[in-house]
Amino acid sequence: MTDMILIPTDAHPAAADIPLVDISGGGLTETPIQQSMELARVHGPVFRRRLNEHEHLFVSSLDLVTELADETRFSKGISKILDYVREFAGDGLFTAYNDEPNWAKAHDILMPAFALGSMRTYHPAMLRVARRVMDSWDRQAARGAAVDVADDMTRMTLDTIGLAGFGFDFDSFGRSTPHPFVEAMVRCLEWSMKRLGRTPGGDYSEQDQEFERDSGYLASVVDEVIAARTKSGDTSVDDLLGLMLGAAHPKDGTTLDAANIRNQVITFLIAGHETTSGTLSFALYHLLKDPTALRLAQREADELWGDTPDPDPTFEDIGKLRFTRQVLSEALRLWPTAAAFTRQAREDTLLGGRVPLRAGDLVTVLTPMLHRDPAWGDNPELFDPARFTPEAEAARSPHAYKPFGTGERACIGRQFALHEATMLLALLVHRYRFVDGANYQLRIKETLTLKPHGFALSLIPRTPADRALNRAALPAASAGTTSEAAESGPELPSRVRQGTGLLLLHGTNYGTCREFAERLAAEATALGLATETAPLDAHAGALPKDRPVVIVAASYNGRPTDDAARFVRWIEDAEPGAADGVPYAVLGVGDRNWAATYQRVPTLIDDRLAALGAERLLPRAEADASGELMGTVREFAENLRVALLERYGDPETVGATVPPAEAAYTVTEITGGPREALAACHGLMEMTVTEARDLTSPGHPRPKRFLRLALPDGVTYRTGDHLTVLPANDPAVVARAAAALGVDLDTVLGIHAPGTAPAALPVNRPLSVRELLTHYVELGARPTRDQIALLVAHNPCPPERAALEHLAADDPRPLLGLIEDHPALRGALDWPTVLELLPPLRPRQYSVSSSPARDPRHADLMVALNPGGTGSGHLHSLRPGDTVLARVQPCREAFRIAPEEPQPVIMIAAGTGLAPFRGAVRDRLTVRQTTTAILYFGCDAPDADFLHADELRAAERAGALSLRPAFSAPAEGGGRFVQHRIAAEADELWPLLEAGARVYVCGDGNRMAPGVRAAFRDLYARRTGAPAEDAEAWLNRLTAEGRYVEDVYAG
Question: Which candidate, 776, 753, 748, places its Cα nearest to that of 764?
Fold first, then answer.
């Protein structure tokens, strides 16, 4: 492939008229797409750009793009920039060369991941992440703070592709800063873009070294994603990663190699979120600036979801959001986030009758300028979603709109992106009013992709009154589709005549047409038809004449799908009359982005059947995957219903009441299951996580996490109380335990026991091994001597028995580790022995870090991750929407810090020991208490683990406390640990103690608490000259009087 140098010839002298613009002197700007757009405005829709030694052809006119979309003459071209992207994305789908075997192999293996059925399975993950956005925006709105739109859309789309595509949670909204993957990715994209404009001979070693670090980090994150899946033991092929790891090519049975899997994951993580986040950001910008369009979008969402601010959208709901989809399409027209694509000549050819191209020459389509072609009218800069009504789209060339590229190398994930974006945009406009407090003016940032720069919104939650006013002021956003056949006319029968059949045939490679056929069959069954569903090839050679035939078919690169090829050959070669009298209807499924082959096979089937004597029940319907796919399918289904009832209806059922359609399944919720019994055993209730985020900087060796839990109705707490939480064992540990014991996690057990059995085990009810090992037994505890003796008694291997008998008392291995390290135990422990061996899972206790005076309906926790810790590991894994079993546990009355208390208060904590004091400080703020309160807080460094630093500093400014941090690295503030700073400030503390000050200590009971006690004993001894035993007695008196109170933990 080559950039091109046009040489005028006698045959094509017009080539010399194409403008050549040399930008070598000034080079590429920070916004090269916008720079090229300006060149197109000045020099027209065809120009050559020279940059140093490279010359390249850009086009943007509809007539030339139409030619470039011809797959027989042109294919995807890998531009210089994409060549640079290959250095970190390799032969992924986006950057692979056309002749690389891995492109076709990966494309065929991964296409099922973007079929309709797969989209349905991704919907819950998309909704889960959408709720994270709204939770975050609710918090910002409550604080009166603006939201950074582009940053939050990037967080959302990264989490979505991570969860839906790879089962991996980046937890972007649980972080105070963007995930490092995003930052590294942006720098890699910028490196690729800026490398094109390098001055020959310049020194770019520093930039290249940074790129090497960033690309290495991207690879390490991807390796982590893949390793997490491999470690989980999940071998399903229900998502992208599952297909990459486990699916074979449908024709040759080969699989993707490890290097290509890494490249594909990197590609999808980048392409799967960077462009969609920009699309949503531009859409929100245009809605902000166009109040009428915003109110129409709100009206559409309100019609669908009513007044509830937190709807639960179904997969089908998203297909009904037609105007919202038009908003996104128009935003992509004005600012396509992937703003250019390159085509490569397959052979020597003449473009537009005047541009000679050699085989391999590259031509870049400047998409934003194509989207401003005269085909879009005389005001293409105007934001107008009406450009994408079905009527407007049908009247316009499909080549005028190319935000996803063109042909077989067009974006494979466009339906994923549009479903995700449509749902979130509708949820946001339904929930919020947008305020442009800063009068934002659009500035576009380029990192190969485009997005608004510095775009912030303020938010006001919408109310039912606001929605009612909107409904009254505006017409419906999108009128429902009413088929001609369904318009008012003679009353129809409610059912068909008994014995009427219907044959539904599908032609599909990835299941979408089969799913539509099965859906039509279910609806026909409700009308009384006896239905049969089969591939088209099952009826190659003859169609039945005793029942109508409905065909749902697609094309694949203009050819029949694998299950329709023989049928198509038959109807092409069949003699006239071969289908005489067969009633039929055709629903074609395709994508207008493939304009040259759009609906080719469905059209062929429809035309040939008519020529062979078949009788149309309905005109052929065209469902466009890039347009109103589900709307067209629904309309076809309604028209088919009417046609079948008109032709085959039972006259005796005219006017009869149609019973509601029966659901395929009847489902009842069974209470009193294992989870309920577990909760009852420990006196716990289900609580929902509403917020989860990191409190420490990325990479901190002792991570700490913030959780907010919604309390059930009727549950209250007081400042300083604890939350008792029942954890769950980590799935990876559960899998290890099952492997060590030699058991299948899906085996179902029935546990029966006498009345003396531990109440924490589920008895007399079915329970899977997975449930037992996850929720009921400890897997990380150190073994007791009795447990080791049990292992010795059941180990059939003499050397292993001897090793267990002589186990050192200080052996650090947990019980599970011992079982793993003695493989003869695998399968040697029967279930009664296992249940005797593994102690019941015990609840853990955590200090509540919030104040009910501020928020009585939620309780906050701060949790330090203990390596290998069951409780902390479980809590660190929780995300908003997850539930836990917990209860409020009152603290000792002596540890309650009354905010109105006149005596001075000295609070001392390290790490998450801060929790009860955060609540106490909030109490003091609520009652505006400004009496002396000192908080000593130990942590590593100001920018590492200074928990809730901004909040505490604000409280200090308000006079609620005097903040005394003690940083261990670097040493400052009087010493490395809190006890050192206490000693250094003894002159200030002694008068407070003499005045009746109360001291409260919370945190590590092994090192911190003893150190603090020693500091106070030393303080007393130095001030009074008393001996050590008197200092000890003084501290004991303070403790007995409730003036020195500890709430500490060991470990």
Answer: 753
**Quick one: fold of 501-653?**
Rossmann fold (3.40.50)
Q: How many CB atoms lie within 10 A of CB 805?
A: 12
Going from N- to C-terminal start, the domains of the chain cover 501-653, 678-837, 896-1049
pLDDT for res 10: 41
- 267-291: average pLDDT: 92
C-alpha span between 82 and 1039 (Å, rounded): 70
Nearest CA among 455, 609, 628 for reference residue 542: 609
> 840 pLDDT exceeds 60?
yes
Under 8 Å between Cβ of 685 and 679: yes
pLDDT at 593 (0 to 100):
67
Would you list the DSSP string of 514-541? Answer: HHHHHHHHHHHHHTT-EEEEEEGGGGTT
Note the maximum CA span of the chain: 118
C-alpha 7/C-alpha 276 separation (Å) is: 40
**For residue 970, is the peptide bond before it cis, meaning its omega torsion is within 30 degrees of 0?**
yes
Distance CA 113, CA 126 (A): 15
Q: Answer yes or no: are the C-beta atoms of 194 and 159 closer than 8 Å.
A: no
Any idea how long the chain is?
1051
Catalytically annotated residues:
275, 404, 411
- Distance (Å, rounded) from C-alpha 962 to C-alpha 947? 16
Percent of the chain residues topping a pLDDT of 70: 93
In DSSP terms, which residues pair with 366 in a beta bridge?
A: 340
Q: What confidence tens digit (pLDDT) does each residue in 587-643 have?
A: 999 887 676 678 999 999 999 999 999 999 999 999 987 777 788 898 999 999 999
CATH number of 678-837: 1.20.990.10
Among 536, 608, 539, residue whose Cα is nearest residue 577: 608
Residues 643 and 670: their CA atoms lie apart, in Å, by 43
| Same fold: 501-653 with 896-1049 | yes
Local confidence band at 12 (pLDDT 50, 70, 90 cut-offs):
very low
Phi, psi of 120 (to 5 degrees): -65, -40
In the three-class reduction of DSSP (H, G, I as helix; E, B as strand; rest coil), residue 654 is classed as: strand
3-state secondary structure of 55: strand
CB 904 within 8 A of CB 875: no
Q: What is the DSSP string of 1010-1035?
A: HHHHHHHHHHHHHHH---HHHHHHHH
Residues 6+ apart with CB under 8 A from 382: none
The whole-angstrom distance between residue 719's C-alpha and the CA centroid of its chain comes to: 35
Query: Residue 3's pLDDT is what?
Result: 54
- β-pairing, 74-76 vs 340-345, is antiparallel
Q: How confident is the model at residue 319 (pLDDT cuts 50, 70, 90)?
A: confident
| Residues in Cβ contact with 940 at an 8 Å cutoff, skipping those fewer than 6 apart | 700, 967, 968, 969
What's the pLDDT at 120? 84
Say what the pLDDT of residue 307 is. Answer: 87
Buried b / exposed e across 86-114, counting CB within 10 Å, b at 16+? bbbbbbbbbbbbeeeebbebbebbbbbbb
C-alpha to C-alpha distance for 205 and 593, rounded to whole angstroms: 42
| CB-CB contact of 251 with 143 (8 Å) | no
Q: What is the pTM of this model?
A: 0.66
What is the DSSP-derived secondary structure letter of residue 754?
-
State the number of CA atoms in the 13 A half-sphere of 16 facing the CB.
6
3-class DSSP assignment, residue 1043:
coil
Please provide the DSSP assignment of 585-596 as one string: EEEEEE-TTSGG
Topology at the third CATH level for domain 896-1049: Rossmann fold (3.40.50)
Compute the distance between CA of residue 637 and CA of residue 661 in angstroms, rounded to an integer: 15
Distance CA 384, CA 279 (A): 16
Residue 480 clears pLDDT 60, i.e. is over it: no
Q: Does residue 183 register a pLDDT over 70?
A: yes
The sheet with strand 883-889 has its strands ordered as 844-847, 722-726, 883-889, 685-694, 704-710, 858-864
